[in-house]
Amino acid sequence: MNDTSALTPASSRSESGSGVPMTMIQALRSAIDVMLGRDPNVVVFGQDVGYFGGVFRVTEGLQAKYGKQRVFDAPINEGGIVGAAIGMGAYGLRPVIEIQFADYFYPASDQIVSEAARLRYRSAGDFTAPITMRMPCGGGIYGGQTHSQSPEALFTHVCGIRTVMPSNPYDAKGLLIASIENDDPVIFLEPKRLYNGPFDGHHERPVVSWARHPLGLVPEGHYTVPLESASVYRNGSDLTVLAYGTMVFVCEAAATETGIDAEIIDLRSLWPLDLGTLIASVKKTGRCVVVHEATRTSGFGAELAALVQEHCFYHLEVPIERVTGWDTPYPHAQEWAYFPGPDRVGAAFRRAMEP
Amino acid sequence: MSDPTPLRLHVPEPTGRPGRETDFSYLHVSKAGEVRRPPVDATPAATSELAWQLVRVLDDGGRAVGPWAPDADPALLKRGLAAMMKTRIFDARMLIAQRQKKMSFYMQCLGEEAIAVAHAFALAPGDMCFPTYRQQGLLLARGDVPMVEMICQLLSNERDPMKGRQLPVMYSYRRAGFFSISGNLATQFIQAVGWAMASAIKGDTRIASGWIGDGATAEADFHTALTFAHVYRAPVILNVVNNQWAISTFQAIAGGEATTFAARGVGCGIASLRVDGNDFLAVLAASRWAAERARRNLGPTLIEWVTYRAGAHSTSDDPSKYRPDDDAKRFPLGDPIARLKQHLLGLGAWSDAEHEATQAKLQAEVLAAQKEAERSGTLGDGRIPGPETMFEDVYEAMPPHLVDQRRQALSSLPRAGEG
């Protein structure tokens, strides 16, 4: 693929000069608020999202503001939530649904994989599924094996859906608005350990809030962060790190702690992907480390490693490293032995820097 | 205390098998005219006993009797008869075309024609059906989709509106209120409820009509649809076509033994009817009753249509392996076309000569449509949509990786070049 011209100057720091401090929860709420206000076809539903405002409070206050016809509670039935959203999309609405934890999407698999993802294709464009499926994901909150999963690879394997994962409040709002406005079905994964601050994996240290982070400054109105555009989160010259979600900050900590000048690419859109930004960076550094929290085997990192190998083979100085969650269920008490923290990432950086 | 009896698993069986006649007494057939007709604003609970009876209008002599006899003038009934005949002729022609290898596959609705055709007559323009693969009668009754276009889909040819992506019969006609058929069973049932919820959210007047077979009611999506329809009082008709068979699986394996599928609705707080699906007038009357409930914001109605799948499940099926050959002839609810014809003859609104002339005219129409469709190719002759089209419509805008893969497919290059 001759796509080297596509290096996207997508670092969103330059775009976020003005705004108000928001947590990722507030930024997501602001995105939904903006879209409910702008587009009368946007509706929001899911378990506990109505009167209560969701277990993570993302939709707090929206039912009071927009009414029960636009923001309402759904039965505990993920297949029903997605299936009803597909029907609403066929009607002409633009549903934004919440699956309470990504770990709970499995009952909706048929509706996502066989229906939403293929509706445009199988009907040759007669019907589409312009729905956004929000799912809090990832660990680091002592959620055990049913509140910690990162199932992104199960979605990136499915043609016809988009998989998005923001790492900060600014991107979260801009990507969510872009997802809602997009006519394809979007899986919108929210790393819940980042809801209240840029967690870098040092669980033993005090929680850092978004208030002091430049990407915690979020414009109050409408803006988008384009889909299929990665961000160069940290410029560097020693090696390229491909990461997303919580791992962006873990990798930043690892770079600081090892003194290795890592260029951290925050993918933001997992699939379809901004391949050009990845290729340009790896060609520049000649070294690549892929990091994700999800299990390793057939994880999205395997696809990333294959793409880098296909497109950058002659630029690679060393084998591609992968740092991931172990191939076990997400444990509860042993959470921090499972979580790929800065030490494991840092060790991979050092291996990748061996001549 | 006596010794406990060893436990034993119950696996339901049909009463008939090849070489053994079916005992259809399991159907519990009510007499024509004997089931009461509640007002359309009846509470769901007030329909309870209707879920265990069978709404029938046409008696054995072809007369329309009882409170469900609809207000339908003979002109409408004649159109209904012709639409059923057209559906049967269409199916028969397409079965032959499949045997001639012009298409890969076909599914007929032999014996079930009254359900889709009469139901279509009870809906209004703009209403949306979420069908299964045996409701071609919805399209053929309306007549606003040319048969040529349908046959091009079946032939997967250069004019196939689905661009060759879908198995034959998996039509999609938004303009005719016909949602894209999935092929994954039951998924459309909850989608129909979602569409109806959207119509209610927008303060629209249009309603949805969802379809499912007896076998697929065992899927979670069926129960999901009932829950959502009840919770949000969705303006939707939930049609369960109980044709007794899911491929080789008797409806008792789907959970129909010693209960009814209509009873599922009552248990969910949904007004429910069990109706003779081979009785055009009963289908029309029950469909109108349910449509009016939905349109008046009175909520969903579940209707179990009792019928019999007189043909094979599909062209890939051989029912002689699992059920008696004469089952369809012995089915107590008869044939829908013969019964409506008898009724119209009794009214003096129809004659054998008209029937034969209509049959000949429809045969000619179907044949002409088939010939015209075949001018754009068949799956058998290879005149199909080009391989480049298979990369379209995966996403709204083609992402770079698909642009690249399309280039590879078209140039037969094994892999992407080093960029």
Task: Give an account of the 3D structure.
The complex is a heterodimer of chains A (355) and B (419). Helices cover 33% and strands 17% of the residues of chain A. Chain A has helices at 24-38, 62-66, 78-91, 109-116, 119-122, 152-156, 169-181, 247-258, 275-285, 300-312, 335-338, 342-353, and strands spanning 20-21, 42-46, 71-73, 94-98, 132-137, 162-164, 186-191, 217-218, 231-234, 239-243, 262-266, 269-271, 288-295, 321-325. In chain A, strand 6 (162-164), helix 7 (169-181) and strand 7 (186-191) form a beta-alpha-beta unit. In chain A, helix 3 runs parallel beside helix 4, helix 8 (247-258) crosses helix 12 and helix 9 (275-285) packs across helix 10 (300-312). In chain B, helix 6 (220-231) links the parallel strand 2 (208-213) and strand 3 (236-242). In chain B, 52% of the residues are buried. In chain B, the strands form two sheets. Chain B has a five-stranded parallel sheet, with helices on both faces. With 419 residues, chain B is of the alpha/beta class. Chain B has twelve helices and seven strands. At the A-B interface, helix 3, helix 4 and helix 5 of A face helix 5, helix 6 and helix 12 of B.
Poorly predicted ranges of chain B = none
**Integer-rounded radius of gyration of chain A:** 19 Å
Biggest sheet details of chain A: 7 strands, mixed
Query: Reading side by side through the largest sheet of chain A, how are the strands ordered?
Result: 3-2-4-5-7-6-12
Beta strands of chain B, count: 7
Number of helices of chain B: 12
For the largest beta sheet of chain B, what order do the strands appear in spatially?
1-2-3-7-6
- In percent, how much strand structure appears in the residues of chain B? 5-15%
The number of E-state strands of chain A comes to 14
What is the number of helices of chain A? 12
**How is the biggest beta sheet of chain B arranged?**
5 strands, parallel
Unreliable runs of chain A, pLDDT <50, ≥5 residues?
A: 1-16
Q: What value does the average pLDDT of chain B take?
A: 96
The largest contact between protein chains, plus residue counts on each side, is: A-B, 53 and 49 residues
